[in-house]
Amino acid sequence: MPDSISTGAFVEASQALSAEAAIVLFGVSAFCIIDVYIMARQINAYVASQQAGGTENVTRCPNCRRELDPDINFCHWCTTELDTNDE
């Protein structure tokens, strides 16, 4: 364990890794970067749809006014029980 964090410490640590460990570390890092990219695109698309007025078919909680999940009969944000009158 180095006494301080420096570029030299990172170089020493990377040289101490086996080839298999370096490949696994690179693979995990690549998957993390891909995951962040995909999630950022999904969040950006959601925000763009909200700004474009894509909320006309959204059901909101009568208590907290947040968007509801149509598959459950309570608000998962504030736990208010909802009326289950299916038309």
Helix content: 40-55%
- Helix count, per DSSP? 2
| Overall mean pLDDT | 84
What structural class do helix, strand and pairing data support? mainly alpha
Distance between the termini: 66 Å
Strand content: under 5%
Poorly predicted ranges: none
Fold and architecture overview:
The chain is mainly α and 87 residues long. The chain has two helices and no strands. The model has no long low-confidence stretch (mean pLDDT 84).
Structure summary:
By secondary structure, the chain is mainly α. The chain contains 2 helices and no strands.
What's the helix and strand layout?
Elements: H1 7-16, H2 19-51
Features:
mainly alpha; 87 residues
